[in-house]
TrEMBL record:
PANTHER family to which the protein is assigned, alphabetical: GDSL-LIKE LIPASE/ACYLHYDROLASE-RELATED (PTHR45650), ZINC FINGER PROTEIN (PTHR45650:SF12)
One Pfam family from the record: Lipase_GDSL
Similarity-based family: Belongs to the 'GDSL' lipolytic enzyme family.
Protein's name according to its UniProt entry: GDSL esterase/lipase
Any single GO CC term annotated in Swiss-Prot or TrEMBL for this entry: extracellular region
Amino acid sequence: MFTTAIFVRKLVGLKMMKHLVLTLTWMLWLSLCGRCISQVQPRLPPGQQVPCFFIFGDSLVDNGNNNGILTLARANYRPYGIDFPGGATGRFTNGRTYVDALAQLLGFPRYIPPHSRARGLDLLRGANYASGAAGIRDETGSNLGAHTSMNDQVANFGDTVQQLRRFFRGDNDSLSSYLGKCLFFSGMGSNDYLNNYFMPDFYSTSSDFTVKAFASALLQDYSRQLSQLYSLGARKVIVTAVGQIGCIPYQLARFHGNSTRCNEKINNAILLFNSGLKKMVQNFNGGQLPGAKFVFLDFYLSSSDLSSNGASFGFDVIDKGCCGVGKNNGQITCLPMQQPCENRQKYLFWDAFHPTEVANILLAKASYSSQSYTYPINIQQLATQ
C-alpha cells in the first residue's frame, strides 16, 4: 500500500494526488450513500448561483478542445494566453474569454473545464464543448482542418448526460431537476459566414443559397440543435447573436486596407440571421419549448457599441489586432512566440478575429447585470429564476 502510494505520487504529482484522493473520497461516499445523490443534490459553493454551466460555441469561447486535433484553428502557444494564469491553454485571446468572465460573475470558484479534459465528478459543474472554426453546419470550418461542429457538440453533451445519469443512480427526475437549474450558453454562426458562405473558393453555399435562404437554412438547423439540447435537459439557455464580423481586423485588412470602413455585405447578411434568431428565442419562450427560458444576447449590438464608442470604453485602438501579421494585424493571426502589443488593455481586438480579455470582461459584465444587450432578461435574472 505504502509503495503504491509513493509510486502514484511520483507518477501524477502532488497536485494530481490531492485531486485523486478527493475523487476517491467522493466515489466512496457515493457507493455508501447509494441513491442519496438523487435525493439530496450537491450543495453549491458559497456565492455560486447555478450548479453547473455548459458551453457550446466556436473559437470565441473555446478553452482548449482543439489542442489535440489536426487543425490550423489552435491557440495553445504563446502569445495566446499571455495574461492568463494557466498560460497558453487553447483560448483564442490573451486572457479570459467571455464565458470565463461570465463564470466568475456567476460565482464559480474555478473555470469550466474543456470537454476534452472533463472527467468524472467535474461534469457535475459543467463542461465547455466549444471548438475553434466550428459552425452550425457540419462542413463549416473544414478549410482549417478538424473541428467539433455544433451537431457533434450536442452529441457530446448527450454522452455527458449519460455519465451524469450514473451519478444520479438512474434517477431521471432528479437529474432533470439538476440540469434544469444549470446555465447553458450557445454561441454559433460566425464561422458559417466567415468560413463557409463568404469563402466561395472552398464552399458552394453562396452559389446554392441566396443570403436570405442561407440564413433561413442556418436557423432551421440551429433550431433543431437547440431543441435537442432542450430534450437532453437544458432549460436556462443563453443564445448569442453573431457579432459585427464585417468590422473585425481580418475583414478590414482583406477588403479595405487600413480604412475603418466595415464590410457591410457581411454585416447585412448577419443581421438577417440575428433577426431570425431573436424570433426563434421568442417562439421558444412562448410555449414551443415548455418550461424553457431562453435569453437572446445581442453580440452584434455590443460589438458595434464597443467599436463605435471605443474611447468611452477605454480603447485607443479599435481596428487592429494587438498581434498578428499584415494590414491591421488582420491578415494572419498571432504567430508562435510573436511579441504582442504592450498596452493590451487599450486594444479592442487581440488578433484578426477575437477580442481582448478586457473587451470580453466588459461584455460579460454588461450582459450579466443589465439589459443593454440581453432579451427578455439579463443573465443574472436568468440564473436566479
